[in-house]
Design brief:
By secondary structure, the protein is α+β, with helices and mostly antiparallel strands. The chain has helices at residues 2-17, 24-29, 37-43, and strands at residues 33-34, 48-52, 58-62, 68-73, 86-94, 99-105, 110-120, 123-127, 136-142.
Amino acid sequence: MFRMMAVLLALGVCSSATAQISTYADVKAKSGAQLSAADLNQLMPGAKVVSRTPAGSTRTWENKPDGTFVASSDGRGSTGGKNVPGTGNGTWKVTPEGRYCVAIQWTRISEDWCRLIFKVADKYYGVGKLDEAAVANEFEFSK
């Protein structure tokens, strides 16, 4: 009986500690602070970026001051269960409205998106629009 209670308690603690943010509603519920264009213009030049997609792929790049980068991807979640790493040339910019915009030309596909960036505790999340159901992508930015 004691062992079962200990396991249930451990599961409860782990599940609350790893509660994930997956939508704009989750970002709002965690009191996410939206970064302004000025904040992004301070943060983004020279930033090392880690981008995690909802499909499970992790991509990395470094925002060069000239607005370019070379991205790498582990390919998880984007190729029907096969991990196919890749690289692609990209560009980045911050719009006057405070959106972080990225375009990447991968070998077979291209990406072109803009995200509003929110900080929640020590993590960042990007959403395409201020809609409760909008997907929130996790980012790491470091210098």
